[in-house]
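## retry 2 of 3
previous attempt timed out at serialization; input unchanged, resubmitting
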Amino acid sequence: MKTFFKKKPYALFLAPGFVLYSIFVIYPIFAAGKLSLYKWNGIGEKVYVGISNYIELFTNSDLMSQMMNALLHSLTIFVLTVVIMLPIQIIMAYIIYTKARGSNFFQVAIFSPQFISTPVIVFIFTLEVVGLGSMTRPWLGIPEIGIYIVWAMISWAGVGVGMMYFIGAMKMISFDCMESAYLEGAGFWKRLWYIILPQIKMTVLNLVLVSYIISMTIFDYSYILGGINGGINGNVDVMSLFFYRTAFGDTNPLGGNISANSMGMGTTVACVLFVMVFVIALVQMLMVYRKEED
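## retry succeeded, writing output
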């Protein structure tokens, strides 16, 4: 062991982080995978059932219906974020990067919601009546738009984070490149389209992945707004809330206050959610690796 550390002294710096990461990240993943193969309520004896929990999850009509509803809502948040919020974040970052008039105030104003806690944000959005003129109505009382309200909350609170990522990426672009484009007559928006975007596309790809992970793991907004059942007919239900309801909810899909298999099935849902995130993350890593090779 001493010889190993002498030949590779950098391992001494990596070892503490690797040990902590293994204990708090890698081990829980494998422990959860193992637990999903058992029937267990978190208190009594664990009974090994193999892949029966997975079969139950995908064949039980009630469980499947709730999971697909939650998955659809999570994917809706993801698509809306990528299609609407990412372009807005890029434009905001570009305005600040080019030091347009009022950009300093604009930067502070956009990033300030980060300092507001989630319950306060939900309270702000749960004002009884919001709108102008004929549009004034209790929007949160309309089940069909519940998940869009959740997305609006997340977007309002997190728009500054993505913006800062893009600002950092833009600051890494060569000033000479931007100056040359300006001298050749490229306008404000042409410089964004032909100079900025091609050079920050890997950052855009990374933010798409981050948006996917957030949309699949968001929990607090839906829980505070709609409770453990995900609102009216599950109108704000998301994947993480479905997992929580299955494992810990008083009215979990398997029935009863403490289901005979609440922890086993809940862990199964968590493992399925992990696979959904891991596969997309793996695809993104392969794309980055190929880009670096090219």
